Amino acid sequence: MECGTVTPQPQAGNPPPRLFRLAHDRAVINRMGFNNRGMEDAARHLARRKRSGIVGINIGANKDSADRIADFRGGFAQLAPLADYVTVNVSSPNTPGLRALQEKDELWRLLGALAEERVRTGTTTPLLLKIAPDLDARALDDIAEAALIFGLQGLIATNTTIARPAGLKDSNAREDGGLSGAPLFAPSTEILRQLWTRVETRLVLIGVGGIASGADAYAKIRAGASLVQLYTALVFEGPGLIGRIKRDLAALLARDGFSSVAQAIGVDAA
Ligand SMILES: Cc1cc2nc3c(=O)[nH]c(=O)nc-3n(C[C@H](O)[C@H](O)[C@H](O)COP(=O)(O)O)c2cc1C
Question: Is 180 in the pocket of ligand 1 (CB under 6 A)?
Fold first, then answer.
């Protein structure tokens, strides 16, 4: 379970309507804009949780922040000690300017600040960077390099896309925001595969984007994912989907002669 995105200050997010089903495309467009009660409230909740299962906390910057990097620093200091891992979200399309933090100079400043914060606080919580699907090969080179240099544990590929792939059928496809679900599967898996070719086992890759079946989860693993996440498919399939994915994934691994997920990671990416 990954919670967030949490920002230092509470904020209302964008005015509704801000979430649109594209039922004909098994997709969603959202422009929520990090509606959340802020990091103090998140910290109170996290502090109360029972220590079972993995809970990651996803941190971001307030929309009206004068210093975005300071927001990430503050979120990390406050929440990292309470979580099993921290996701640095620089890839939401719904906070103007946030995705610019994926560019090399800004990314070095951000990851440098977080590395300092880790040393200052003595926090060992794993740190992962969540990236957009709308990045070219050069940007992926820079991101992979920075993640290794600054000692991150992993990358999460990907967030929603601002692209509108040809063939979307639903009239809601014209809404502004980030597109998730089935149409995101191919582009986000391609980003994942390209990351794997750059980092292989040096970073943990989490695959996310359009997973709706055991076969989809298996394809992400074969493209380089050690772990997978999903969101949009739960809207259409309900929570029973998770059990079905686990069962079908186990069958696919066995069919192909793998005795663990680990053996299948990256086999399609070479
Ligand atoms: C309604 C909605 C809200 C989301 N909010 C966030 C967010 O606050 N932070 C974040 O990193 N990703 C957010 N995402 C992106 C998802 O975590 C995920 O990366 C993306 O939807 C692709 O996966 P999926 O196709 O399985 O949904 C959101 C997605 C949806 C549909």
Answer: yes
Q: Which of 135, 191, 128, 131 is nearest to 159 (CA)?
A: 131
Residue 226 falls in the annotated catalytic set? no
Residue 134 is predicted with a pLDDT of 96
Residue 33 Cβ inside 6 Å of ligand 1? The answer reads no
Distance CA 56, CA 230 (A): 14
pLDDT of residue 50: 86
Q: Could you check whether the bond before residue 123 is cis, i.e. omega within 30 degrees of 0?
A: no
Q: Does residue 20 come out as left (phi exceeding 0), alpha (psi in the -120 to 50 range) or beta?
A: beta
Catalytic residue among 65, 91, 92, 226: 92
State the residue for tokens 């792939």. Answer: 165
pLDDT score of 51: 75
Q: 159 C-alpha vs ligand 1 centroid, how far in Å?
A: 6
- Any residues with CB less than 8 A from the CB of 166 and at least 6 apart, and which? none
Please tell me the distance from the alpha carbon of residue 104 to that of residue 138, in angstroms, as a whole number. Answer: 10
| Coil/strand/helix, residue 250 | helix
Tell me if 78 CB under 6 Å of ligand 1. Answer: no
Residue 228 Cα distances to 16, 105, 127, 216, 218, angstroms: 30, 29, 16, 10, 9
For residue 52, the model assigns a pLDDT of: 82
> What stretches in the chain show pLDDT beneath 70?
none
For the chain, how many residues are written? 270
Is residue 5 reached through a cis peptide bond, with omega within 30 degrees of 0 on the bond before it?
Answer: yes
State the distance from the centre of ligand 1 to the C-alpha of 21, rounded, in angstroms. 13
pLDDT at residue 102, rounded to an integer: 84
Of 219, 157, 175, the C-alpha closest to 27 is 175
